[in-house]
Amino acid sequence: MMLNGCDIIMEVLIEQGVDTIFGYPGGTVLDIYDALYRYQDKIKHVLTAHEQGAAHAADGYSRASGKVGVCLATSGPGAANLITGLATAKADSIPMVAITGNVATSMIGTDAFQEVDTIGLSIPVAKHSFQVKSIKDLAPTLREAFRFAKSGRPGPVLVDVPKNIQLSSAEFSPMPAVEKTPDAEPDKALLDKAVELINESKRPLLFCGGGIINANCWDLITPLAEKADAYASFSMMGLTTMDGTNERYLGMNGMHGRLASTKAFTEADLIIAAGVRFTDRATGNKDKFAPKAKIIHIDVDIAEHDKNIVADITVAGSLETALGYILENIEQKNNPEWHEIMKLFKQQEEDAKIPHDCLMPWDVINAVQAKAPADANIATDVGQHQMWVAQHYTFTKPRTHLTSGGLGTMGYGMGAAIGAAMATGKRSVLFTGDGSFGMNLNELATAVTQKLPLTIVILNNSRLGMIRQWQSLFFGERFMATVPDRKTDFVKLAEAFGAVGYRAETLEEVNAALDKAFSIDTPCIVECIVPSDENVLPMVPPNGTIDNVILK
Amino acid sequence: MNEHFAVCIIVTNMAGVLTRISSLFSQRGFNIDTFTSGATENPAYARITITATGDQRKKDQLLKQLSKLYDVKKVEVMQPENTILRELMIVKIKTEGDKLREVIDASSVFGGKVVDMNPGTVCVEMCGKGTKLDAFLNYVKAYGILEYCRTGLIAVERGSNCMFSQPVEDAE
Hints:
The complex is a heterodimer.
Chain A: E1 2-4, H1 5-15, E2 20-23, H2 30-38, E3 44-47, H3 51-65, E4 69-73, H4 77-91, E5 96-102, H5 118-122, E6 128-131, H6 135-150, E7 156-162, H7 163-167, E8 169-171, H8 188-200, E9 204-208, H9 210-214, H10 221-227, E10 231-234, E11 249-252, H11 259-267, E12 270-274, H12 280-283, E13 294-299, E14 313-316, H13 319-329, H14 336-351, H15 361-371, E15 377-380, H16 384-392, E16 401-402, H17 412-424, E17 428-433, H18 434-440, H19 444-449, E18 454-460, H20 465-474, H21 490-496, E19 500-504, H22 507-519, E20 524-529
Parallel strand pairs in A: 2-3, 2-4, 4-5, 5-7, 6-7, 9-10, 9-12, 10-11, 12-13, 13-14, 15-16, 15-17, 17-18, 18-20, 19-20
Antiparallel strand pairs in A: 1-8
Chain B: E1 2-12, H1 17-27, E2 32-39, E3 45-55, H2 56-68, E4 72-77, E5 83-94, H3 99-109, E6 113-118, E7 121-128, H4 130-140, E8 145-150, E9 154-157
Antiparallel strand pairs in B: 1-3, 1-4, 2-3, 5-7, 5-8, 5-9, 6-7
């Protein structure tokens, strides 16, 4: 059938299984919005307050559901506003497709109204970007964008569609949804060596990252830990790859990791790392990282091998195949000495906890944990609250933790929480700080319009806490620009947006507010007043080791 | 330890691809020494030759990152002992007084060709390995180099082996 470009976009989205997109209209996407009007029974368009929110929502949609999230923006400022969202998704390997309008091809390069070099802007922040220059390329390019977004190491792909292409017509025939290109088969010889190392190991440690989520193979982690008689540490992106209540689950490692988790790396004799990339925040001083261990590094992206850490065995390709093969071929191990060591580390972690007599951020996190459904989407912004959630929240289901791990994007959480709630139909909880919330709180309007079950927990310390912490520890307490001295009334702000707001200063008030917040299925802010000078601990200083850990 | 190396990259012959390649070098902290691009036997693809400097680990990382780019079909580091490396240069040299003969003699020793002459100046075209061109420039420096322009290296493996071959009709 002959269709114009806008209808081709709609038809390809439908054939790819897209039923929800996040976007903001504008001059060069008016015709696409006209098509959305006609297709509104098949594609739900969610109007956000800002294109950045749309990008984060598409990202959150993807993280929560495993599907490719889609956002739509106009040319110029619309495209420019997507950039932070694309960079966030790229850093965390999240598959999404961003569609942007552009001025007509005859106008490109003339500094036309709302013209910007979208492709040029997107190059370092997208996995790839396409500009469609001929109507016959439109459908194949969109399909290719979906395939490329989810294949290999996933990431965001941008498709820029000039206005005249939207209005041209071409023959269109529907196709089945594109499949991801199968991951490469891991090298069996290398896997056999890995099996041998695990069989020989007395103190094995799994190190699990977000790649396991992307590979949808989290089911292999607990059996692998049990058969290898190993413990498991996690990068922040990998926190939901194992049930957090399992006794082998040590939680996040690294700069703000849990003590036993970080210490495990110093005593382990073998690290089995899967879907992680050994960032500086996870390893500390790379020269002194895991000093007694051999390292097996399994990743779908060959470029991660030997990038940050030189491993003893690097396995490229499908994580599911690699971990499945290892699980099947290793012996059932028994490592009693390792349990003794880890028991000691866990006790040390317990002993390092400092009692407090006022409302602490983790008291709030624990209170939310007690009341929130296990399958709630837990989104965070970036900073101290993000670390406290990573340390204290016990995740039991995969894809329930949404956080900007690699890029560290303050303001990520609002959009992500919205996208996750729309993807799953389940409640989203956003943990945020007064600083991060200030970045994209405009999206509260979106959540209200969509009547989303969204609980926003603001850990308000009246500080830009994480930067303040660094100024406190490394800059002689010269607090520059981290004491905002704002007079924002978050309860009134919630009401102004058409949401509900509560303020809590004690644990009783927190519990009472949460009871109310979880009883309603529309957006609600719970502002919790927490101390201003609390630091995230433990802390391994930048480029440090566990020997430099700050515990109080 | 830093080494100087040449990389050949086969890319889809499309607008914007050069930007993506050069952007990757700067994103990963590499200085490009030379960069050349041109058509290949298959019009769907272009061949880029880049020379850069870096240690082994950074080089490996760069090659892997290059190979992940959507438009990149093949990446190869050229082995110097088995590669024909050539660069073209045009130099404009002062030839005051009786120096003209000396400059012309020197350029023919280096295998160069005089392509333009004016009273007081001469333009010499020269092709060869970078080190030969450097040596010539060094020699004629005393006469006075007015300007020169170099294309950057191109590289092809010796023998019958080809880096990338795809029949034209199969091109994507």
